[in-house]
Amino acid sequence: MRRLRLPIVVLGLLAGCASERQAPAGVVAVAAVGEPAAILPPLAYETVARDIGDLVYERLAILDPAGAPVDPAAYRPALAVRWERLDSLTWRFHLRPGARWHDGTPVSAHDVAFSFEAYADTTLAAAAQYAIAGRVAATAPDDSTVLVRFVAPSPEQLYDAAWHVRILPRHLWQDVPRAEWGRDTSLARLVGSGPYRVVGWRRGESLTLAADTLRPDSLRPNIARVVWRFTADPDAALNLVLAGEADLLESLGAPDRIARAAADSTLRVIRYPSAVYGFAGFRIGQGARAHPLFADRRVRRALAMAVDRRAVAANVYGADARVPAGPMSALLWVGDAGLGTVPHDPAAGARALDAAGWRPGRDGVRMKDGRRLAFEILVPSSSPSRRQAAVAMQEMWRQVDADAEVTTVEFPVFQERLARGDFDVFIGAYLDEPSARGLADQWGTSGIGVLNHSEYSNPVFDSLLAAAGRAGELERARALYHAAIDSLNADAVAIYLYTPIQAAAVRQGIEQVTIDPYSWLSRLPEWTVSRAR
Length: 533
Description:
Helices cover 26% and strands 23% of the residues. It has helices at residues 47-56, 109-120, 129-132, 157-162, 170-173, 234-242, 255-262, 297-305, 309-317, 346-355, 384-398, 411-420, 439-443, 459-470, 474-490; strands at 27-33, 61-63, 75-77, 80-87, 90-95, 136-142, 145-150, 196-202, 206-211, 225-231, 248-249, 267-273, 276-282, 359-360, 366-368, 371-372, 374-380, 403-409, 425-431, 494-498, 501-507, 510-511, 528-529.
């Protein structure tokens, strides 16, 4: 890939402070792993696309990272400055006076209604379509007021209205057939109302945003330009930062990479909790698709007992990595205190395999009915940490006479094989949303064909999860979510391995850095570039 020589941090220019904000100044460059196919929010799937989009497009309101989605006090204004519930199904939002698109066109409530409609359109297949289509719609009684109506009462209505949908400019997209949105590469239509506007995209190399000077001074970002430098892998991204060709890297990853950044006096390492949890998922399958090994709950539990999850987490992410008690990062508001987990007990795991009829064969690998306890662990080549976890588990399973082979494939192939059910065990990582309802997509019956690649189905889990989603009182909802997760853990559908403490690399001289773990650059408009590094 041809390297661009870009100004990274323009020193000698003051970015100003929040109370007396001057004209935006300075340039920062972000080292990114991979290049997004699209940054238009309904079409954005990669985290890099989200990072860019969250600076270009706005939500109606913003949920505090530590807030529970059912708590109305946890939200702050964004494109909407205030809102109120009208009845059990309807919310009214009042848009920010004077809000404009980056091309100067006033933002209208009709843009909001258009955006909700677009997210619900099956043609676009937006990641958030499940939360919008058939559940909620927006209308515009006038240019500055939006009515968001739901089909059923829910304690998370404000979350569904504010979290999922980024608002799009109707005047630029309404005449473009939605089947063509993904093929449209015109920068003239990548227009938002957020703090930054898109000013350049050199495919395969970089994307550049500039501060939107149409915003009021109180909402104007401090830093003038943000440049994404796209790289092929995490090591290439780190090398850009160490070479002084980039200023920011979201996640350094393994301890040795953190140490390399910490040893560079021009950088500082900032730690923050990750919204990601990593796991080893068994393919279970249903009916004719039942897996010959892992459809048996006893085998899954026995193999789970053989894995020292704490050792895997420390091996991959260092001693401060957390071991989740279920399918959740450290950020998920329901918490994990009191959840039941499969204990680490290799001897008990070996006895369980004996009891299930799996006895050591002549080559040291267990056999039953002529079948060896041999299987593949599938990992994507884009994630060295997942491969590291797989290799650690491979050795642990060898201690109970199970033969696991680690197979590394390119990420598109990895995704294709998961979608086909062409795997035995996969090392996955899911990004939490603030709402625990996402567990249904990941592990519920309704998620089969979506994110539930294990094809696990348990009506008890589904019922508890649905009840938790209907509970409006925090402690009642938490108790139901815990009961659902306990049932999932008892079935050993997956082995939840780690939720890391992320370590970001930040160039000295970039100050006032606050990181939202759900979207690490979303607070960048408040950051500053100082005169001294």
